[in-house]
Amino acid sequence: MKKIYLVTCSLVMLFAGIGAKAQTDPHFSQYYAYPLYLNPGLTGVMDGDYRVTAIYRSQWGNISSPFSTPGVSADVALDNKLSLGINIMNQTAGNGGYNYLTGYASMAYNGVRFGKDGNQRISMGISLGLINRRFDQSKFQTGEQWNAATGFDPTMGTGEALAKTSASALDAGAGIMYYDATPDKKANVFVGFSAYHLTQPSDPFISGGYDKKLPIRYTAHGGVKLSLAENFSLTPNLLYMRQGAAEEKMLGAYAQMRVNEEADFLLGANYRIKDAISPYVGVYYKNFLLGLSYDVTTSDLSKVAGKANSFELSLTFSGRKGKAEAIPFVCPRL
């Protein structure tokens, strides 16, 4: 099983970054565009009655089998106090045919409101779902398949047999979000905290003395929307995420400029400390927001993998039931 362990360990390091020693979740540079993955407390926190979000991340496109991570979520505000959502994400990675699929249902209570006109708001959410991890053993390449004359021969046996190639487990998460929704204010603060994998499901593929439990993913995030002019705002934001021995620190900002009554233009960047810079450009048109970002690697990983060729594409649609006039308030993008 040593060779299988090495394959698994390599995947683990790719998920978490160099130096990590436990399996970690995929990360997104556009974390603010994928709210239900970031924090179940963001369920229903939107400028509208319903929202559908799709995101796609391609990581290390210059290798033969790059990481591919699509995700989709949807949430709806049932009333002023309760919201429901679903979130599905799937990651495929590496030559070992590794697949990591998660599906969650979330519920949030959005009814905590205080301050003038109830514009200081707190949303609390939980998520329950299923995790599935599996390998395609037919895609393994081991020493037993090496032919000195022709290289790897997939028709030869791997010499390895996994007792299990697929495993599923129940999972749970929780989160809380505070935001200042006061309209026409110069500065609107927002901050949140979430924890996923509260059940710490075991990973049957980890061996070699490593902890088999999937570590809890803790995330703290926040920022402030600064209204600098009638048609221009700047939003500095930051994120801290820790899962087992792996941690991620990200800070950045984006500017939002009103083009006309139906369209906004967004431009910004995030810096993942000691890892990458991620420029971002977005277009908001009517009820749609399209975003594109590209990771420029700044760590030593670029010496090994060359240009990262990692990019993300996100699309969000939000709408309202009927034609009721919207009540003005400031909705955080995080």
TrEMBL record:
InterPro entries: PorP/SprF_Bacteroidetes (IPR019861)
Signal peptide per UniProt: 1-22
Entry keywords, A to Z: Signal
Pfam family, one: PorP_SprF
Organism superkingdom: Bacteria
Keyword set includes Signal: yes
Name this protein carries in UniProt: PorP/SprF family type IX secretion system membrane protein
Organism: Pinibacter aurantiacus
Upper lineage: Bacteria, Pseudomonadati, Bacteroidota, Chitinophagia, Chitinophagales
